[in-house]
């Protein structure tokens, strides 16, 4: 089993979760990405969110939410994505950055437009009464 290790920023407001769609993709993804060599989770997440959404996460508000694993979207069977999810406040105005075509707030019905691991996150948030 091969694991793709990723980080994600869970931002829920008014019963909707912040999500993105990259150029040329058909699914929505919770924003985040992969660590670069030597980066901590916080450093990598802050960099990815700045690149994707043009906002800065607030250091002392970053906290671990949960870790999810599922079949990776569009990858060979057995390729698993492990999504370590964090919550955080942010500074700035959300707007599409590098590689991002669309920034959207999805309610629970948006689950069907999302990757497999994101569906687990939608369910987790829904079970907690957040979506």
Q: What descriptors fit this protein?
A:
131 residues, alpha+beta, Nucleoside Triphosphate Pyrophosphohydrolase, 4-stranded mixed beta sheet, 3-stranded antiparallel beta sheet, 19% helix, NUDIX_hydrolase_dom, NUDIX_hydrolase-like_dom_sf
The structural class is alpha+beta
Average pLDDT over all residues: 95
Class, according to the CATH hierarchy?
Answer: Alpha Beta
Please give the alpha-carbon distance between the first and last residues.
31 Å
Number of strands: 9
- How many helices in DSSP terms? 2
- For the record, the count of structural domains works out to 1
Largest sheet: 4 strands, mixed
| Gyration radius, rounded | 14 Å
Give the proportion of residues in helices: 10-25%
Reading the helices and strands in chain order gives EEEEHEEEEEH
* Low-confidence residue ranges: none
Based on Cα principal axes, name the global outline.
Answer: globular
* Fourth-tier CATH superfamily name: Nucleoside Triphosphate Pyrophosphohydrolase
* Proportion of residues in β-strands: 35-45%
Order of strands in the sheet with most strands: 4-1-7-6
Just name the CATH architecture.
Answer: Alpha-Beta Complex
Assign the CATH topology: Nucleoside Triphosphate Pyrophosphohydrolase
